[in-house]
Design a protein that fits this description.
- The strands form three sheets. A five-stranded parallel β-sheet has the order 1-4-7-10-13. A five-stranded parallel β-sheet has the order 3-6-9-12-14. It has a four-stranded parallel β-sheet with strand order 2-5-8-11, with no helix packed on it.
- Helices cover 44% and strands 10% of the residues.
- It has two domains: 43-196, serine acetyltransferase, domain 1, CATH 1.10.3130; 204-307, Hexapeptide repeat proteins (UDP N-Acetylglucosamine Acyltransferase, domain 1, 3 Solenoid).
- The protein starts with 15 loop residues before the first helix and ends with a helix.
- It is built from nine helices and 14 strands.
- It has 307 residues and is α/β, with parallel strands linked by helices.
Amino acid sequence: MQNRTVNCCIPPESGGDFILGKVVEELSAAIADTGKPLMRRHLDQPLPSTSIIIDIVEKLRSVLFPGYFGNSEITAEGLPFQLGAVLDSIRPLLAEQIRRGLCFVCNDEKKCSDCTHQALDITGRFLASLPELRRLLMLDALAAYEGDPAATSPDEAIFCYPGMLAVTNFRIANELHRLGVPLLPRMITEHAHSITGIDIHPGATISEKFFIDHGTGVVIGETCEIGKNVRLYQGVTLGAKSFPLDAEGNPIKGIPRHPVVEDDVIIYAGATVLGRITIGRGSSIGGNVWLTHDVPVGARVTQADTK
């Protein structure tokens, strides 16, 4: 059998250049058509950078948990200098990314200059919230230690647990969401989602001492409200049962549609809790339960109860 050399290159005379030019022309026209649902109106304004956002979050983690992340060789005397240096490096980076997010949703190109001033103000307010974020996260770490007999210390939860990583990203993102920052909060929680398999919308409301054990497959929706000392296991979904539509058939955004989970509730692996229902204080929801109705205070719900 003879060896044959196959030429895999398409010669210019085949019309490749013409096809490419036509594709570029049609794509450019489609992108320029502002009548289409194109969110990015100002192409001259860069989008937030995923890599820079991730770097900012890692720097924030080193501020919230010094010695655990970032520089591990910190003395008590050097701590204020370390924190100050990291925060000083975060401030301009975060302000620029917030400005980009604000410009992304800005409808008036002339007012885009206001985004810079707004971004600086939001950055200052966010940095001022870090002591409270630290307090909440330390309580989350304590909840992990108290809720998992395999945990040897809260430090182990901070350093090793995927649930702790996801909750840290959530609390950072939630504060930015509360301050009205577009895009960045979702980028931060989705990064944690890609690493841990835990999907928490930055708009959810989660009180202190929150613990996700194991974590993979947990979903917490945008309007979910979670009280104090709540524990979730892997595969739990706190989702919406339906999506109300407006007169044109479009989903109505922002209305409460996810569960309210009161204090001291435990929801075991694989449970699916849907709709704007209330899980009463001190209740426990068994594994693989499908739940679409309110649960009274102190109740114990199992698969047998939902059949």
